[in-house]
Amino acid sequence: MTAAAIKSIMITRRARSSQQERWQRLMAEAIRDPAELLKILELDVALLPGAHLAAEKFSLRVPRGFVARMRPRDPGDPLLRQVLPLGDELHDTPGFVGDPVGDQAAVTGPGILRKYQGRTLLIASGACAVNCRYCFRREFPYGEGVAASARWAPALEALAGDTSLRELILSGGDPLTLTNTRLTELLPLLDRLPALGRLRLHTRLPVVLPERLDAGFLAWVRALPVPLIVVIHANHANEIDSSVGVALQALKSAGATLLNQSVLLHGVNDSAASLAALSETLFENGVLPYYLHLLDRVRGAAHFEVPAVRARELMRSMVATLPGYLVPRLVREQAGDSGKTPVDFASGTVTASAVNVPGAV
After folding, report:
1. How many helices (H) and strands (E) does the chain have?
2. Which residues contact 147 (CB under 8 A, 6 or more apart)?
């Protein structure tokens, strides 16, 4: 990174634009009380006892702008179902556990997860702008190590000299809950990774809080010394309104490659029409569908699971109606595998080996 690029970032950081202050304020003003969410959407208060009990185990958090895209008086709204705590989460379902993808066994250092050849994941932040009820890291012990908490240096020192490391992945939580100042601290440290060819960032914020993609962040993207891939997370076309579209186009114009990963969720997107609409809407906004995940079997999320046989039917329908570049890869993540495991929807099986390509983490 050139001295001029660093100077530009520092000027932007000192300016602390009103846009940046706005996203932080909007994030702080997220709805956390189930009663308030039900009141805003004019929903039956009979949902409240179960919502309160579930929120005690995994709290409610949802930005008000995301709530504004939900349909009032509709408990089945696909956006609402992703964030509203339900009594269903309290059921103890066999096979659903606290760490379904083996993350904790893959921790090798301060905020470092190493699962895949040539790629390393940094738990950049333990915070999120929204608490998705199906989150596979809803029980992850973030307090024990976040890469950005010590200004990145220990994590990057632990990786320095690794000539096999081609891709660094920022995940969380959500890395975009970090301020531009904290993200900027990472830039000069990337030079310590001699073989680094790209940076990947997994984030829900462009969808649930598009205001986060402010001028300072876009300047950070342009100053990166390696190409940036941003994997957003949208499960339903209704999540992508005009504000999200504007933010995504700005991010793409700054030089990022945009991909999307979704989770197949009962009552949210488990129909051929909804999945096709999502793919079309993503493409209209400069994003390519990447992965469609079978549900990670995390404790509290069993009511979201879609049977694999149904998932294969949906994929066959998408292949029949969409061009190939709009059909995401159907995958499942299994603890201990070296990559995502593709689900073969033609034969109705799961392939024997994992995909050794950049995997959505």
Report:
1. 13, 11
2. 110, 111, 112, 122, 123, 124, 155
Look up the pTM and report it.
0.90
Residue 170 and residue 227 in one domain: yes
Residues 218, 112 share a domain: yes
pLDDT digits (tens, 9 = 90+) for 59-88: 999 999 999 999 999 999 999 999 999 999
Question: Cα 252 from chain centroid?
Answer: 17
Please give the structure tokens belonging to residue 242.
Answer: 């005009």
Same domain, 106 and 174: yes
Helix (H, G, I), strand (E, B) or coil at 202: strand
Q: Is residue 339 part of a domain?
A: yes
Same domain, 13 and 141: yes
Query: How far is it, in rounded angstroms, from Cα 215 to Cα 203?
Result: 17
For residues 249 and 210, the answer to whether their CB atoms sit within 8 Å is: no
Q: Report the candidate in 257, 328, 344, 337 with the shortest Cα–Cα distance to residue 293.
A: 328
The residue range of the domain holding 185 is: 3-18+98-350
pLDDT in tens, 13-46: 555 555 558 999 999 999 999 999 999 999 999 9
Q: Which two tokens stand for residue 288?
A: 């390519």
Tokens of 85: 């705590």
- Indicate the SS3 state at residue 118: coil
40 within a domain of the structure (yes/no): yes
Q: How far apart are CA 6 and CA 11, in angstroms?
A: 9
Our measurement of the distance from residue 78's CA atom to the centroid of its chain's CA atoms, rounded to an integer in Å, reads 17
The mean per-residue pLDDT over the stretch 118-137 comes to 96
Both 60 and 117 in one domain: the answer is no
Sheet holding 257-263, edge to edge: 107-109, 112-116, 119-125, 167-172, 198-203, 228-233, 257-263, 288-293, 329-332, 341-344, 349-350
